[in-house]
Amino acid sequence: MIIALVNSKGGVGKSTLAGNLAAWLHEQGHSVILADCDAQKSSSQWVQEAKPDIQVFHFANSDEILDSLPVLRDKADYIVADGPGSQTETSRALLMWADLAVIPCKASMFEARALAMNTAFVRQAQAIRNGQPDAIAVLTMVGRDYRLTKDMRDAAASLELTVAEAPIGLRQAYADAPGQATFVWKMGSSARDAAEEIDALFRELLPEACTENVVPMRRVRGRKKRANG
Ligand SMILES: Nc1ncnc2c1ncn2[C@@H]1O[C@H](COP(=O)(O)OP(=O)(O)OP(=O)(O)O)[C@@H](O)[C@H]1O
Ligand SMILES: [Mg+2]
């Protein structure tokens, strides 16, 4: 299965989600390839360092994606493709082969127009490919302003685009994990909320991929009950 993280708007969390998703799938016992289609190579450097078992490929332009992505399809259970922030042709090429397009978008006033443009790309691909790829938007870097979140959900609804129930919050742990060559569910109690929400998101996106509890159970606080007598 090819999962493409696409949004031609920069800095919305594509690479953050791509790296975490590739590692999460690997920890579920699947073979995973990370296809880094961004010249900055941020997700591939992070994953190579933090989880060297995941194979990494780089694609520099849309021709390479159109030619090579289908060849990778048979080489792993999941191909996670991290799209670039600006080159729209590269994002469109990814949509030609993806089975699932995940569109991360910040809950912010400036994102609605970008969401409309990206949804248009998805619709074009779906028209060419008989309805493929499935597409879902994910709200990222969600702060405490509930109204903005609602505005983004309304904007997506008006585009008839599904939005994942599980949002990703604005949390320092996501920004810190690559620098520490790790993933949020390995960062202990300070990153607990991030670990739980990203696990909930990936379970929602790919229920068939879940085999393991990647996030350790939350320890229940309180005194142990004494046995009677
Ligand atoms: N949920 C989050 N909370 C806090 N910081 C985040 C979150 N997600 C991403 N970031 C940080 O925001 C910045 C942009 O994220 P990221 O690189 O994942 O976006 P991108 O969409 O891949 O950007 P580009 O389009 O440039 O490739 C990074 O510094 C990252 O660490
Ligand atoms: Mg990126």
From TrEMBL:
InterPro entries this protein is in?
CobQ/CobB/MinD/ParA_Nub-bd_dom (IPR002586), DNA_Partitioning_ATPase (IPR050678), P-loop_NTPase (IPR027417)
**Gene3D superfamilies in the record, alphabetically?**
P-loop containing nucleotide triphosphate hydrolases
A GO molecular-function annotation: hydrolase activity
Task: Keywords in alphabetical order, please.
Answer: Hydrolase
> Which residues are in the CobQ/CobB/MinD/ParA nucleotide binding domain?
3-178
First-tier enzyme category under EC = hydrolase
EC number of this enzyme? 3.6.-.-
Q: What is this protein called?
A: MinD/ParA/CobQ/CobA-like protein
